[in-house]
Specification:
This is Toxin-antitoxin system antitoxin component, TIGR02293 family. It contains 9 helices and no strands. It is mostly helical.
């Protein structure tokens, strides 16, 4: 896996509850852009959390929202804002790639929470809410995949 490789759209959509909350056909980056601009249903948050066994605290950090806002968002069919959708999509991409590289969803979720020397001692979870941090975390996953000490 390279940082520039096309993400596994099927795996990402599966983690978000493709049939329940994400009704989109995603084949390209342009399709992703359209999905993010439109927003996905808030109940995708609940599906994503269950898929990777993430806590409410993890989700508030990933999405950059308060706990009460999270509770409202995950219990509705209303669409997330484009910004919230983008942050959820980035988290899904990272966890899907980490699952592929590390071999299981449990290992990927655990890796997300562990401090990483290559990331300056930060946890991947702490970085993926921004585009720059997201790219750095993807680079680390690419290095792990290629067998480079990370």
């Amino acid at each position: 896996m390279e940082a520039t490789a096309q993400p596994d759209y099927e795996g990402i959509l599966e983690s978000l509850g493709r049939s329940a909350a994400v009704r989109a056909d995603v084949q390209s980056a342009l399709d992703v852009h359209r999905l993010l601009a439109k927003g996905i249903e808030g109940k995708a948050i609940r599906r994503f959390a269950a898929y990777y066994d993430l806590s409410s605290e993890d989700l508030t950090q990933l999405l950059g929202i308060k706990k009460r806002t999270l509770q409202r968002r995950e219990q509705t069919e209303a669409r997330l804002s484009p910004g919230e959708t983008d942050r959820l999509w980035r988290a899904a991409v990272i966890l899907c790639e980490a699952t592929e590289v590390l071999g299981s969803r449990a290992k990927a979720a655990s890796w997300l929470h562990r401090e990483n020397r290559t990331l300056g001692g930060a946890r991947p979870l702490d970085l993926i809410a921004t585009e720059a941090g997201y790219e750095e975390v993807r680079n680390v996953l690419g290095r792990i995949d290629w067998g480079v000490w990370s």
